[in-house]
Amino acid sequence: MKVDGTHYRSIWFNEVTYDVGIIDQRWLPSEFRIATLKTGDQFATAIRDMWVRGAPLIGATAAYGVAMEMAADSSDQALDHVWHTLNETRPTAINLRWALDRCRDHLAPLALDARPDAALQLAHEIAEEDVETNRMLGVHGLALIRDIAAHKPQGEPVRVLTHCNAGWLATVDWGTATSPIYHAAEAGIDIYVYAGETRPRNQGGITAWELGSHGVQHAFIVDNAGGHLMQHGMVDIVIVGTDRTAANGDVCNKIGTYLKALAAYDNNVPFYVALPSSTIDWSLYDGVSEIPIEERPVEEVTRVQGLGQDGKIAKVSITPPFSDISNPAFDVTPGRLINGLITERGICDASTDGLAGLFPEHVILKGKLP
Ligand code: MRU
Hints:
Layout: E1 2-3, E2 6-7, E3 11-14, E4 19-23, E5 34-37, H1 40-48, H2 55-72, H3 76-87, H4 94-107, H5 115-150, E6 158-162, H6 178-186, E7 191-196, H7 203-214, E8 218-221, H8 226-231, E9 237-240, E10 244-246, E11 251-254, H9 257-266, E12 271-274, E13 280-281, H10 287-290, H11 299-302, E14 303-307, E15 313-317, E16 330-333, E17 340-343, E18 346-348, H12 352-358
Parallel strand pairs: 6-7, 6-9, 7-8, 9-12, 10-13, 12-17
Antiparallel strand pairs: 1-2, 3-4, 4-5, 10-11, 11-16, 14-15, 17-18
The chain binds 5-S-methyl-1-O-phosphono-5-thio-D-ribulose.
């Protein structure tokens, strides 16, 4: 999508320097910085410390990490090492494991000298697939927004609330939750987005930044405002992303998503989740009890980062030194609170039957349900 009129992706390969460029998201929305990654360890740091983030982008980054490692050392040991190093970085987003398994399955049977090129080719494929998948989420999600627009009084925008950043910066391009929004804007539909702040890391600021940079009207709101807006008829639809979706339609996403879903349910506001199928964990049958929730460093809660009065990025402490701190990074929204899952194959119920209808190749898993 666009930043000041220039098209960017969140990750790209530099053929001349044979390394990988990323937008270093730690500094957004205050500063737009680019970083370069070359070694497997650098890729692991970038994922763990959230230079890159968002489930689909984490997967694509891991694939490029494997490719760069294979260029340096294509042995079985190196493949095994980079798989483990990257897999340990973030536990909740299943796209990480999905991409790493795909790389290992593809590369392990190959001769050592064929691995570097094959690994890079596969990383490109994973990145391109992500762009196309997210484009399709937008095509399907646009139908929902069109329908709402058709029933709005003349001159009123369709108002979408989203949480965290499930935008193009969380994917390779388009975003998941934002793809229907960008498609609606391109189709000339009047659209207005409420971007929830998303404490503790304030990914809502990234969402506001990318929407604004692309010319989409929006408001940045504190997390606690979402329920109030829904109660007063100011939200037409909620669309969020997910880091892992269980086979029963339960959705794990950024902490606070569950509260948005409860408020939407109580106020009859449609609540949709946009997801590439790479985010579905077909091995889990109950998202609430089975999805591992990442616990992140307490410093994310005790300190807040922003631009100081001197125009420089600074962190300030906001908690007393003696308080216990807890920082679960995700929560799980049960499928019963979700109106539908927007996938690259269409929209379905957030249930085993709904998912099995769109992805029949996985229908066998239904037989394993308790
Ligand atoms: O901790 P983050 O910033 O990586 O969490 C990101 C989210 O929760 C997104 O909503 C999710 O990955 C979907 S991204 C298209």
